[in-house]
């Protein structure tokens, strides 16, 4: 099942995608369906909500259906907390300046709802803030069932579905080095800022994804293939990351975990910040970046079984 949030008459509404159509959830249910109030309500409704969808779609009148191509999609959800794991692909670790913990344990940082934008919205290039704006396609886990200290072997039972997040990064604020050559990351300023988390275009439920460690991820910028890898190249799997983050806090429905990015970032072609071009994992030929993102760049983040998240970089 593909579930989205779209904008109608200036308000965000829950929708279900069926082929080339978007079905308005509440209209399909006759307007009286609290489980269809928004994405979070639907996630919390669990199995009862899933069953209600089947009935609603089957009975949806023509007035509840709109062409998907003409719908304005919003972020599928605006999570209160976006838990993030850095340095989680083997080839990405080879192409960048590394900290002492890179690849040895999950690197933990946070983005907030203030960072989130939807498909088609502008990623802001603010030169007063950064001159080294980078893009990272990442598989995002949407939590469906709450839990704390979740064991790895039960972790995927807590997943509602998956979406795509572009972990937009200010590299010149992220990567820090002292005169002795010690590297560390300031991921607060470098990762958490306005428009740094494009999300979407929709959520695909876990049953349709199957094994999250067997998906092809790609990034294209202005049509050039910059990243291509299997999610099987993650150092820490989706299940391991759920276990890891659940040790710090209770994971709640609607929270998102982003899972890292593979090689091919602009950072890899920036020796000033310790970058080293590797060329990805060798699965497809990549085009090395000739610099960081600039206004007018079209960024397409693709994930197998989910789709493509497209955004354009614009001036502040």
Number of domains: 2
Q: Structural class, please? A: alpha+beta
The number of helices is 7
Please indicate the percent range of residues in DSSP E strands (runs of 2 or more): 25-35%
* Residues in helices, as a percent range: 10-25%
Name the poorly predicted regions.
none
What would you note in describing this structure?
Strands 1, 2, 3, 4, 5, 6, 7, 8, 11, 12, 16 and 19 form a 12-stranded mixed sheet that branches. This protein has a 5-stranded mixed sheet with strand order 9-21-20-17-18, with no helix packed on it. It folds into 2 domains: 2-73, Fumarylacetoacetase, N-terminal domain (SH3 type barrels, Roll), CATH 2.30.30; 82-315, Fumarylacetoacetate hydrolase, domain 2 (Alpha-Beta Complex), CATH 3.90.850. It has 7 helices and 21 strands. The protein is globular and about 65 Å long. It has helices at 25-28, 39-59, 90-94, 171-174, 187-191, 206-209, 238-246, and strands spanning 2-8, 11-18, 21-24, 65-67, 72-73, 82-86, 107-111, 116-117, 122-125, 133-134, 137-143, 159-166, 169-170, 175-177, 183-185, 197-205, 216-221, 224-230, 256-258, 298-303, 307-315.
């Amino acid at each position: 099942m593909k579930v989205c949030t779209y904008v109608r008459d200036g308000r965000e509404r829950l929708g279900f995608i069926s082929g080339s159509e978007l079905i308005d959830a509440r209209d399909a249910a006759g307007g009286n369906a609290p489980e269809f109030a928004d994405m979070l309500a639907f996630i919390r409704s669990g199995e009862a909500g899933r069953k209600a969808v089947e009935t609603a779609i089957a009975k949806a009148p023509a007035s509840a259906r709109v062409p998907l191509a003409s719908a304005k999609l919003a972020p599928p959800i605006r999570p209160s907390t976006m838990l993030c794991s850095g340095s989680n692909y083997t080839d990405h670790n080879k192409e960048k300046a590394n900290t002492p913990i890179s690849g040895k344990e999950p690197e933990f940082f946070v983005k907030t709802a203030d960072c989130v934008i939807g498909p088609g919205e502008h990623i802001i290039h603010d030169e007063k803030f950064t001159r080294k704006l980078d893009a990272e396609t990442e598989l995002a886990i949407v939590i469906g069932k709450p839990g704390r200290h979740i064991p790895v072997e039960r972790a995927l039972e807590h997943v509602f579905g998956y979406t795509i997040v572009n972990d937009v990064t200010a590299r010149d604020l992220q990567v820090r080095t002292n005169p002795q050559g010690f590297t560390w990351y300031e991921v607060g300023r470098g990762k958490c800022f306005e428009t740094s988390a494009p999300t979407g275009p929709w959520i695909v439920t876990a049953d349709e994804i199957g094994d999250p460690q067997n998906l092809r991820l790609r990034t294209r910028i202005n049509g050039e293939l910059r990243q291509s890898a299997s999610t099987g190249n993650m150092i820490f799997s989706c299940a391991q990351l759920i276990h890891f983050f659940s040790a710090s806090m209770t994971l709640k429905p609607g929270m998102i975990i982003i899972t890292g990015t593979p090689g091919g970032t602009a950072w890899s072609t920036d020796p000033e910040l310790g970058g080293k071009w590797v060329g990805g994992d060798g699965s497809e030929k990549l085009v090395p970046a000739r610099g960081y993102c600039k206004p007018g760049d079209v960024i397409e983040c693709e994930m197998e079984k989910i789709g493509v998240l497209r955004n354009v970089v614009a001036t502040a």
